[in-house]
Amino acid sequence: MTTATANRQIRLRERPDGRIDERTFETVEGAMPEPGPRQALVRNLYLSIDPTNRAWIGEEPTYLPPVGIGEVMRAVGLGRVVASNSEQYPEGALVTGLVGWQDYTLAGGEGIPLTVLPELDLPIECMLGALGVTGVTAWFGIEEIGRPQEGETVVVSAAAGAVGSVAGQLAKLRGARVVGVAGGAEKCAWLVDDLGFDAAVDRHDPRWRELLGQACPDGVDVDFENVGGEIMGAVFAMLNLNARVALCGLISEYNDDPQPGPNLRRVLMNRVLIKGFIVLDWFDRFPEAIARLGALVADGKVKDRHTVVAGLERAPEACNMLFDGANVGKLIVKI
Amino acid sequence: MTTATANRQIRLRERPDGRIDERTFETVEGAMPEPGPRQALVRNLYLSIDPTNRAWIGEEPTYLPPVGIGEVMRAVGLGRVVASNSEQYPEGALVTGLVGWQDYTLAGGEGIPLTVLPELDLPIECMLGALGVTGVTAWFGIEEIGRPQEGETVVVSAAAGAVGSVAGQLAKLRGARVVGVAGGAEKCAWLVDDLGFDAAVDRHDPRWRELLGQACPDGVDVDFENVGGEIMGAVFAMLNLNARVALCGLISEYNDDPQPGPNLRRVLMNRVLIKGFIVLDWFDRFPEAIARLGALVADGKVKDRHTVVAGLERAPEACNMLFDGANVGKLIVKI
């Protein structure tokens, strides 16, 4: 099935100090992997580009060990089985998991454990978007931590991103008033006009703090927090009695050394719950979330938008795009 | 029954900027209150001195509105009914509630709603200590939020205080390794030698940070947080996967304007839960907690120590003692 003789791999060369740059990675033409017993060869098609990628190449451990120097960059992706010695991974199957920044991945055995996906009547990019790790992250953050009730106010930061855009739509479906914070007028218009957010605040507007206050006249009951920094601080200052903070990401902080966080006095006085979470905590329940999200996307109740960057070699550049807010919806590299 | 003709009241004169001083309160000889229909006259015996008293006289609302200028200082206390027009408050009954900094309080009707206490075979000071609001705070913080498991590490800050000393003992009873942070060698010795804490760290020791690290070789699973500031920051830096922070108080921060808090990156990566709480949230369950604590105190399994300051007029001074760490266990004013 495969005619290629080499496997391009993007490997970590040195840990970035701040933004990813040309020294961070190197591209190597690796030998074409051969599937051993109980293994399958996967042709990778799409890579999911996520803020967590940047965190994985820092010095500090995250919820996974840092990617080692010289190792293929860790990343979730989507591929098809092109040769197989495994009943688990039949030829032609669509698979997902930590395929890495490379053309081909060996699945199973001593390779990477991948998950076989059902063939749905949706664009396969959705399997990395609303039905992928980011959509599932939004699902559990809203349904298990934020749990917004009818009429409550939910603020979603990085609202035009892959997680935020789904989280806001799920909060709307629960009857909440949803306010998004995003970078730029175009994203804000998309949130309100296409996704049905009640309001969107452009964080590039010098008056963003005032606008955010105006958009939340009754305070904030749920903070779906993707950003950290001063936007999180402004939201924390409005948290209501018994508010919940679904602490999903801190993208504004990943390129820098840790800065002080918000004062916790209001968290105390208003009995706020803050819960850090990583979607892998609900790994066993992924099928449930994917099924629910799949039905919502198929019904048009959750819209899934993708920003696609073409070419494996552009994965490092795509990673920086996230931090520049250059994507709308899910950022994907098409290999 | 009562022969006094006047009721001393300590009223708020001006909000303190920082510590309470001689301008903060004024003492007024009020008229002796007369119980109206369905009211009772209560002779106050003891006042509970708590960090929250300081928060109640700041500008910012807490979980209760700020005490108004000219109003009697709000405080929990213990008293006996000395005259009654109310079946609810029979003469001689021991009562507790927000009696305020005064000799006498009118209970019921348009007065203050007080709670009649059972007569237990324990010193009545215990009703403001382990069986009072502070003990009940420790109970719910440990049993409902921290929930330490056998072998987990619990750090309690302000551990020699009224809440901390009970919280640490309750964590020990659940089988946890308990580390207290307290001010001074005497308090630390009390925690380890008398209360059975596994370790205690003297925050006045210049090496406190290093000592705290040594006392928690396996990190921290539960932070029973009473203090805030840099001690909280040091504990946050050791929080383990799935750690819980029972955010009970921030005493180091009440005299100052809000300062930045800890960075939340570790909270995210380690999926930490932070829950601000106020004991009043479990008001309906006070009887259950008091009964459980009463049995533990009676059996000697929870030790309840009191620091008693004599004289209503010394209540403001006693309040500052808390911030100086001058008390061991529950700080009480005997009127």
* Largest inter-chain contact set: A-B, 32 and 32 residues
Structural class of chain A: alpha/beta
How many domains make up the coordinates of chain A?
Answer: 2
> How much helix, percentage-wise, in residues of chain A?
25-40%
Secondary-structure element series of chain A = EEEHEEEEHEHEHEHEHEHEHEHE
- Our count of helices of chain A gives 9
Model regions low in confidence, pLDDT < 50 over at least 5 residues of chain A: none
Under the CATH scheme, the architecture of the largest domain in chain A is Alpha-Beta Complex
The quaternary structure here is: homodimer
Q: Going by CATH, what is the homologous superfamily of the largest domain in chain A? A: Medium-chain alcohol dehydrogenases, catalytic domain
Describe this structure in words.
The structure is a homodimer of 335-residue chains. Chain A has helices at residues 51-56, 133-146, 162-173, 185-194, 208-215, 229-236, 265-269, 286-298, 315-324, and strands spanning 6-12, 25-31, 40-48, 77-84, 94-97, 104-107, 115-116, 153-157, 177-182, 199-202, 220-225, 239-247, 273-276, 306-310, 330-334. In chain A, helix 7 (265-269) links the parallel strand 12 (239-247) and strand 13. In chain A, helix 2 packs across helix 3 (162-173). The radius of gyration of chain A is 20 Å and the shape is globular. The model of chain A has no long low-confidence stretch (mean pLDDT 94). In chain A, the strands form 3 sheets. In chain A, strands 3, 4, 5, 6, 7, 14 and 15 form a 7-stranded mixed sheet that branches. Chain A has 2 domains: 6-129 and 304-334, Alpha-Beta Complex (Quinone Oxidoreductase, Chain A, domain 1); 133-280, 3-Layer(aba) Sandwich (Rossmann fold), CATH 3.40.50.720. The first copy, chain A, is built from 9 helices and 15 strands. With 335 residues, chain A is of the alpha/beta class. In chain A, 26% of the residues lie in helices and 25% in strands. Chain A binds chain B through residues 55, 61-63, 228, 232, 247-250, 253, 258-265, 267-278, 281, and chain B through 55, 61-63, 228, 232, 247-250, 253, 258-265, 267-278, 281. Strand 13 (273-276) of chain A pairs antiparallel with strand 13 of chain B, so a sheet runs across the interface.
